[in-house]
Amino acid sequence: MGISNHETLLALDRLGNTLGFAPPHFNGASTGDVFPISSECDDTLPQHAWQRNDAVSLDEIGEKVMGAERDIARAIGYWPGPVWTEAESHLYPKHYRADVDSGIAGITVCLDDSMSVSGLGSNNLFKGVQSKWKRIIAAGQRSSTLLGTPAVVGGGIAFSDADADGYSETVTVTLAVATEPDDETVHLYYAGKGGDPEFEIRPLRSVAWLAGTLTLTLWTWQVIALAKLDAFPTADGFRAIDTTDTDNLVATLEIYTVVNDQALTSAQFSWEGTVTTQNGVFVPTGDGYGKIVPATYSAANGYWTSSNWSVGREPDRVKIWYYSGVLDKRYTDFSLDPLSDYWAETITWLAIARLTRHLCACDKLRSFADELQVDTSVRTPDARRHNIPFSYYGNPFGTRMGEIMAWRRVEQHIKVVGKVALI
What we know:
The protein is of the alpha+beta class. The chain has a domain at about 85-140 and about 260-325. It has helices at about 10-20, 25, 60-75, 225-230, 340-355, 365-375, 400-410, and strands at about 30, 85-90, 105-110, 115-120, 130, 135-140, 140-150, 155-160, 170-175, 185-190, 205-210, 215-220, 240, 255-260, 265-270, 275-285, 290-300, 305, 315-325. Strands 2, 5, 6, 15, 16, 17, 18 and 19 form an eight-stranded antiparallel β-sheet that branches. Helix 3 (about 60-75) packs across helix 5, helix 5 packs across helix 6 and helix 5 (about 340-355) runs antiparallel to helix 7. It starts with 11 loop residues before the first helix and ends in a 13-residue tail after the last helix. The model is unreliable at about 105-120 (pLDDT under 50).
């Protein structure tokens, strides 16, 4: 599968599909007579840059995707897909007069059926902070639980030829699970990596639970063994990994559920000059804004209850944890991927525009990638003329065609704040 040493919202396999890259070749794989590697185009992508000098690697693509996602998030103020933000640090909001201490607690306010908090300021309102990222989905932390480790031995991982074309392209992963999980919480990883997002196998083709058995399906070229992806090149140069040979594929995998856990600390207060910290809850109340309350969680009751400060004064800093970003409208009901096609395409344009090596020798793919990488600010006698409004040359992404195309979309999501001039 398309993994890299960079955690990204956009699955690399999806980027390859957007470009029209043959999925096995994008993953550095050969598949026999299906998706044949021809003399006209024999490009298959290596995992690492040092494996092949004349082609871009998946690690390099992952790096550009990660950078594109961050640039887009900085421009619009929120992530194009869901992201967990951990321990974001803020100064605790205080009265402008140092002699006023508003650390009053003890009044319980029920915000909804599942959460109760207390701890009011001198104005009888909860104190709050502005989060770095907007579009907050919920407060909480990422929590993953290992469901099991299916293996080829025992039938937990099986390969089959669903379309009878002579190549076993379908991987079926099964695991006994007593309680049905939500499909979107089920994630598949390489074994032995502790559920590290960098080693997640995605996107999955399907997730289903029936009568105590959880079943996942995916493509064979997504489960190439890590040892094969990391193999050193030989005197013969880089060669595609033969996925018709099951010795080149994984023997075990790990299935996790990954959720946003609101029972975990979402606010932590600290005092300068002490080692004391106190847990609490971050309660989102608006777009990028939330209340911060010292509180304890009751597992028996399933909600947070406010508490007094553990130090006899207001804290100096607070850290917050939250889950934020845009969720595709098709997510959960029709898709297992929370990233929309709109943002996936935008990220692809921006990432490919910034590659420093050619993506592929195929005329169709190369012409599209080359077009995205054209620097429209450079004027040469043989250069293609692009009808680009002058105002776009000052955009923060850059002047390559893919950067301008991405900016044209991104600028539509930037809120313009009016300014008033005093004369």
